[in-house]
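Input.
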Amino acid sequence: MTFDFSGMERGIFVLVFLATLVSDILWALYIRRASSGHAFSAATFSLLIVLLGGFAVTEYVDNAAYLIPAALGAFIGTIITVRWDVKDSKDHPHQAGN
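Output.
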């Protein structure tokens, strides 16, 4: 595993960051749908998670330096999702978690 910071491309950095950020948000939606018994929409989220995750993995397997935007994307994606979920719970207390 090599960390080649000089070989990092800005566009790939951004794409890996966005792929993991969106993937993290999709995980939350997947869990909501699966726990509510919505099989088709849960499966659709699962498909998107695998595609986005696969893209990110193929990039950081070639250059471990891309783990940095992947980790940042996951971190920020979780913050966005939790804040959105908390706000949604306050706005619609009877629908929280659905």
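The CA atoms of residues 21 and 77 lie 4 Å apart.
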